[in-house]
Amino acid sequence: MPINKYNHLLKSTLTFSLLVVSHALYAVDTQSDDTDALADDAVDTISVTASRIARGTKEVPAAINVVDAKRIDAEKMQNIKDAVRGTPGVLIDSNSGGYSSRLIIRGAGQKANYGVREIMVIRDGVPMTDPDSFSRFDFIDTQDIERIEITKGPGSLYGSGSSGGTIQIISKSVFDVDGNRVKVGIGEEGQENLHFRYSQELNDSNTVLVTGSHRAADNGWREWNEFDTQQLSLKHGLMLENGATLETELSYSQADLQLPASLTESEFEAYRSSGEQRNTSSQWQNSGRYSTIWFFNSRYEQEFGNLVFKPRVYFNNWDHYHPVTGAINDNPGTNVLGTDIEFAYKHNLLGVSTLVGGVTARLDKTDGAEKYRYADIVTTPYDPPGPAPVVDQIVRTLSDRKGSLLSTEDAANTLFGLFMQETVRPTDRLTIDAGFRFDRMNFDIEEIAYGEYSWSTKSYSTFAMPVTTKTDATFDLFSPKLGATYALNRTYSLYGMVAQSGQVPSESEIQSNPNLDAATATNMEVGLKARAKDWSLDLSVYRTTVSDEIVSVLQPSGQSEFQNAGETLKKGLELSGKVALGRYFWLGANYAYSDYRFEDFKELVRTGATLNAVDRSGNQTPFVPNHQFSLSLDYDHPSGFKARLQTDSWGSYYMDNANTEKYDGYDFLTSLMVGYETGPHAISLNVDNLFDKRYATEVKKDTSGNKTYYAGAPRAAMLTYTYRF
Prior knowledge:
By secondary structure, the chain is mainly beta. The protein is built from 5 helices and 43 strands. The strands form 10 sheets. It has a 22-stranded antiparallel barrel. Strand 24 (about 430-455) and strand 25 (about 460-485) form a beta hairpin. The longest helix has 28 residues, at about 5-30.
C-alpha cells in the first residue's frame, strides 16, 4: 500500500513503542543496584525451545515470542495462524481457509508452494518437519495446545535445517487433571468445531488422558474450498518411585483439505467486487490434500544427581492423496522412525553452568509412492512450434479422480545429528551460551517414469520405455551459536548473539535440479528485553547473510524452478511490547521492519528450452513487506466478561525477483472476540476480518508478467460454548 496510507499507523505504533522504551530507560536510570524491590513484580514467560531447558525468555540470547494459554483460549483455533498472526517478523495466512498455512519467518519459507519450508516445527519435542525442512500442520490438533514458542533466526538446537527459526507447539499435559472440558463451536461458512478432553488419575502414579477434535468448514464463498479433520489422542503418564516420569501418546488424524484455484488479476478484481470466487480460468480446479496419520511418541525423564536424562522415541505413519499441478500424488504410506537422546548436566564452570547435549537419528521411508494423470479433464488441440505433433492441451480439470499411472517412487531420507550447548554464568548478571548442532542428511530416491506432464505444452505424454532416475545426495550441516545476556537489573537485559544454520533443498527441488547446494545463513543480532508486572518490551536488530540461498523462479509456463542465489542480505528490526491500561485492559503493539536484498543473484529466465541469466543483484526479495504492524487490546474483568480486538497490517511487497511491480498488501485486517465466563460455563463470539476486507494472502508474478492471486477469506463469525469439569 502507498506509504501515506499507513503513516498514521506507523506513527501510532512507534509512539507507543517509544513510550515503553522511554519508561524502560527511565526506570533503568533511577533503579538502584538493589533490585529486590522488583523481584515480586517482574513477570516472565518460561521457554524450553531455544536452549532445551526451562529458562525465562529474558535470559535467552535470542528473539523469542511465546503465545500463552490465555491468548490461545481467546481464539477459535481452526488454524495455527489464529494464535500466531501479529507476531513481528512472522508472516502467516492460509490460502485455503483450512488447516494449512503459508508461513514465513524473517524471509525464510517464502518459496514453498504449499506446506512450510525452512522452519522447524516441533510438537512436544518431536519434529513435525521432514529432514528436507518440509512441514505440515495436518498432524496438529489445534484444540489441544497449551502454548506456542517461536524462536526466530538460525541456531536451533532442534535442527540445523531451520534458517528461519523454530516453532514449538506444546500440548496440554497428561498430568493436568483439572483441564477437562467439552467445546462446541458453530459459525458462518459452515464452520464446525467440536472438542473434548478427559483426564483421569487411575492411582497415585498413573494418569490417562483422552482428547478428540473435529473441525470443518465449507467456505462457500468460493468453489472447491471445503476442509474436514478428525483427531483422536490417548495419552498416558507414569510417575515412578525413583522420581522418573514416562509420558506416552498414541494419536490418529484424518485430514481432508480442498485447495481452491488461483486467480488472474481480472478474476481477483471480480472477487473484490462480489466477495465470491467462481468459474476461474485456472487449469487446476481440483487440487487438495487428503491424509491419515498415526503418531506415537514416548519420552522418559529421570534425574541422577546433577544429571537429567531425557531419551525419546517416536514413530508416525502417514499417507496422502494429493492432487497438485500436473499430477495426482498417491502415497500409500511413509514410515517415520526417530529417536532423540538428550541430557542436561549441572556443574560449575565459570559459575553455575548447565551442559545440554544429545544425539538424534531419524529415518523417513516411502515405498511405492505413485503419480497419476487427472482422469477427468477438458482439452483443446495445440500445435507446438517446430516439428512436434499436435497435442491435447489441458484447459481445466473436472475432478480429483486419478487416471493412468505416470510414475512410481521409492525414497529413504536419513538424518543423524549431534547437538551440544554449554551455558555458563560467570556473574549473577551475565549468562553465556555456546553450542552447536551438526546434522548429516542423505536422500536416496529412485523414480520410474512412464510418462510426464509437460509444462511447455500443458499436456501429458507417454514414454516409449520407462525412464529410471536415481538420486543419492548427502548434505552436512553445521550450526554453531554463541550468545550472551547481560541483566541490567531484574527487569531489563541486553543480549547479543551470532549463529549459523544450513538449509538443504527439498526432495522435489533436488529431483528438479540435482546441482542445488545447501544454503548457509549467518545471523548477527542484538536486543533489549524488559519484563515487569504491568508492561513488557522486546527489541531486536539483526543482520543475516545467506550464501547460496535456494530461490524459486516462476517461469511463464507456471512451473517453479529452483536455483542458488550467490548471496542475500537480510536486515531487520523487530519490536514487541504490551502495557496495562488500568486494572482490566492490556494494550499490545508489534512492529517489524525488513530490508531483504539479493547481493549477488543471476536469475535464470526460461525462453522455450533456453535459460538466460538476468542480473537481479540489488533487488529486494519478493513477498516480504518492508513494514508489518499489529495492534491489540485485551479486556478481562473479574465478573467474567472478556474481549480481544486485534488489527494487523501487512505492507506492500514486490511480486517477483525482477521487482517490476508491488502488491499493496493490506491494512487494519481486524479480528474481534467477546466472551463471558461464569463457573464452569464459557461462551465466546469470534469474528475474523471484521470489516470484510477483500485482500490477497499472496500475489506472484512470473517472468513474462502474468500475475497469480490467492484471495483472503471474507468476514466470518463463530459462536463457541465451553463446559469445564
